[in-house]
Amino acid sequence: MAGSTNTVLFIVLESFYIRVPFIDLWRLKDVTGLTTFLCTWFHGFIFWSLISYLPIYYQSVKDLTPISSALALLPNTASIIPAFVLVGLLISGTAKYKLIIFLSWSLTCIGAGLLALLDTGTTTAIWLIVNMLAGIGQGMFFAALVFSSQATAAALKQDFAFGSSMLHFFRSWGGVRFPLCFASFI
C-alpha cells in the first residue's frame, strides 16, 4: 500500500511541481509511448519473476541443488541473447517493430503459461523447451521495445537517450514491484 501511495505521489510531484522532472511524462501522452512503457513495465515483471522464482521451483519441486537449479535456468537466460540479436537485426533491416512486439508477447505468455503447468513428473526435455520458449519471447522484448522507444522519441522530436533511460527505468520498476509482492506468498 505504501509503495502504491509513493508511486502516485511521485507522479503528481513530477507532473505539477518539478521544473526539470526525472520522468518526462510527455512520453506517456503518446499512445505508442504509453504502450511501450507499459509493455516494458510488464516485461520487467515477467523477466525478473521468472529469474527469481524458477530456481525456487527447481529446488523445491524437482529437488535440485542450488547450482543445478542455476544450470536449469540456463536455457531461459541463454535463449534471450540470440533472440535479442536476431530481432535487432530484423528490425534494423525492416524498420517494423509492432508485429515483433505482439509476437514476443505471445511467446512470453505461452512460455510462462506452460511453465505454470510444470510439476514433479515433467521430463527434463519438456521444461528445457518451455524455458527456451519463454526466454526467446523475453529476448525479443528487450530489442523490440528499444526500437519502439526510439520511434516515439523521433515522432515527438525528443531526446533518444532520455527515452532509453526511461525504458530501463520502467523495466527495473516492474522488476522490483511485482516480484516483491509475490514473495509474500512463498
Structural class: mainly alpha
Number of domains: 1
Shape by Cα distribution: globular
- Low-confidence spans: pLDDT under 50, at least 5 residues? none
Q: Which helices and strands, and how do they pair?
A:
Blueprint: H1 2-16, H2 31-60, H3 66-72, H4 74-78, H5 80-94, H6 98-115, H7 124-155, H8 160-183
Structure summary:
By secondary structure, the protein is mainly alpha-helical.
Task: Describe the protein in words.
The chain is an all-alpha fold and 186 residues long. The protein has a single domain (24-183), classed as Up-down Bundle (Growth Hormone, Chain: A). The chain has eight helices and no strands. Helix 2 (31-60) crosses helix 3 and helix 2 (31-60) runs antiparallel to helix 7 (124-155). The protein is globular, with a radius of gyration of 18 Å. The chain starts with a helix and ends with a helix.
